[in-house]
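Changelog-adjacent note: as of this version, every example in the card shows the full chain rather than a window. The one below runs 943 residues end to end.
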Amino acid sequence: MTETTSGASARKGKQSQRKGLKMQRIFTTPGVHPYDEIEWERRDVVMTNWRDGSVNFEQHGVEFPAAWSMNATQIVASKYFRGALGTPEREWSLKQLVDRVAGTYTQTGLRYGYFATDDDAEVFDHELKYALVHQLFSFNSPVWFNVGTASQQQVSACFILSVDDTMESILDWYKEEGIIFKGGSGAGVNLSRIRSSSELLSSGGTASGPVSFMRGADASAGTIKSGGATRRAAKMVVLDVDHPDVEEFIETKAREEHKIRALRDAGFDVDLGGSDIVSVQYQNANNSVRVSDAFMRAVESGSEFHLTSRTTGESVVTVDAPTLFRKMATAAWECADPGLQYDDTINDWHTAPESGRISASNPCSEYVHLDNSSCNLASINLLKFLRPDDTFDVERFVKLTELVITAMDISITFADFPTDKIAETTRAFRQLGIGYANLGALLMATGHAYDSDGGRALAAAITSLMTGTAYKRSAELAGIVGPYEGYAKNAEPHKRVMRKHAAANDDLRTIHEMDRDIVAAATREWEGCLKTGERNGWRNAQASLLAPTGTIGFMMDCDTTGIEPDFSLVKYKKLVGGGSMQIVNQAIPRALKNLGYPQEQIEAIVEYISENGHVVDAPGLRPEHYEVFDCAMGTRYIEPMGHVKMMAAVQPFLSGAISKTVNVPEEATVEDFERIYFEGWKLGLKALAVYRDNCKVGQPLSTAKSEEAEQTKPEPQVVEVHRPIRRRLPKKRPSETISFSVGGAEGYITAGSYPDDGLGEVFMKLGKQGSTLAGVMDAFSIAISIALQYGVPLETYVEKFTNMRFDPAGMTDDPDIRMAQSVVDYIFRRLALDYLSYEERAALGVLSAEERAAQAAGEDPAQVAAQVESYAQSAPLAGRDDTEHEPDEPALEDVGAHDTTELAETKGGFTADAPLCVTCGTKMRPSGSCYVCEGCGSTSGCS
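Full-length structure tokens:
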């Protein structure tokens, strides 16, 4: 795929003699269509919301390769097949989907002179189709949505906008952002040109400031998000560190988190998609502060830093740099925002500085380039290039990279864009974003720990090879169809950045034979890149980045997404014939084999992992090998700096940046955040975000306590002490069992009552709990039940245990109690609703959904409560025969996990702080800076 030859082609209707690519077959066989070498099968796709059983999507008889998982089948059929369901126009086979997309690329490439002959175009077509149906790579989602359809041919997932200091520009920003959201993509913008709230308008009034205008944009994004677009709106808002309003910007989302907690504690529905969450602002964007080297050096030296006027450029405020940096870390500690973008590092690697600075990024921070531009993405499945003998297939990887870059550049030729400004910039600079997925699985399969020198060396080598190959192919394309329009103006800085990449490759320290071979190949590619680029220039101002690869990661059946390590060692797998099962990651036995373990030990270790979800104390596994199996979460999780170091290892070999959030445990401190952000700058990262577990559900506000009347202290006297008498329950008594779910953890409450009046016993049980927790819950149940029988009022327990916070916490399946801060918090709120009078509950702040609605409408909640109570009294009580005993365990049904995240929580004994999918109810899992749903492929961002 690297040779060129003379050939005639037409470009834009004009005949001209040009060179064209002479394509070579690498994956396919002459005379055999790639589809004919695959076993295909028909499947039925029925996707349901497991929480309520509703059917989200249904299509029968779809055709997919037998090797594709059911999960990949469901996501592709529901997300990417075009045409109305139930009509002949509806796509039903993967062949149709791939033909639609690949056919458009081939025809466009032939028309615009990319290929030397028609035969070369056919080779390109077959190679591209082979790569797609064999899951070697995937284009980003907009390609599958739009290419080859009657809709706009939008191929980009990432956009950067611009805003000037005028009302017209600000309103244009709202409009352009809305158009992008409607198409299912995301956008980022830097608001630093807008004058601060302390500066004057030309009319003499005071300016609103960028944070004020963020409010309107946030409301717009929230409205469009709820309008049924392909995926939820995703956006990034950036402000420079020297803007006078930077402190207000830093604290914006942290203040809103305080509001969320107050609303939740007051009984409002602030759950994801809840009716009251719309009153909370700034929740639809990721916020980042653009910090300069000058500011970071001021932090390092403990000196002052100047904030400058947007209208005059003069210093208007002097702040203490460490204090301002501390505020960034504190706000991020509280609510995960803001992240940091390192301005000077970003612009030092900028290939087109003569055309403007890089001031913003896309929502996930991996695409950084000019304002009013876009980037289309594609990701390679790295695990597909690991041979059966566990060596990396360098040649095939290079050839696939060449193929993908060629296809991606062709797409810019026919693509449509949401605005004329974006179309003009993108066609002039032709930014591409090739990346990869399954790095974590590749490292584990080859016996490399993610947080190790060996793991980082291999990752850096692969990244360097990918980008060197991509830019070499870009230089070859420049010799065929010309360099990008902005190249002439930026030739010298572009060459400088190419030399920086090549120099970084020369500095790579190899450790094993695998990465030595890859670095040797990368060196050859960079040499060819520099030589060819010097002669031809480059076709693309940008070539590579690392995206989240959420939905397309599932399409390729990847175990890990983007640059991420493995999420957990045990996965939840859907079966073709229906149902599901848990499986141990296939990389694990491969890793154990590479580490020298015999088959008998491998089987025993895999069985242990299947039962426990981790490797600690696995039979025969040496402790020095534990690190190979460390995951993002669980019993052995990768330390935060392990993630930062991995990003630093690959960043010098990427045109853009990396979509990744560094997760830290809940007990992490503000000082930890400061250290991570500071080290990110020192290590040369372009952007960095840190997320602390459970920071989005902060500590509850202090609960109001009932006032106690002052009593006159009695004179000392001898008194007779009366011991309380236990009022035992009869052998036959009414009881009620309630099932519940709190933050994905399911359980049961069985409450027994006295026949005349009052609660007398409580049994509490959590599904899939370990023996220790089961014992603790039994003991707790016994203690509460005996105390109730000795006369301790239920309201005392409600007062003490509501608002108690610990994991699992979060969303419940109870319409009266939408959010719970812990299982104990939920249980005693539920008991209060069922067994206390309205007056008692009102004093404790526990109201039902109907009562809260009446209160919000200005009605008397007591009337609602009285009506409900009258209904309850007229209904017969359900009773059960039971023997007198200390509180026992109710029968539990086998409640299984519904996705990998819940399975990992069950096995690992932790709670993943991730939202539920608004489409199917499945708990999402992290993917770069976003979240992705394993059930339906929906994402929370632009991946």
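Structural remarks: The chain is about 40% helix and 15% strand.
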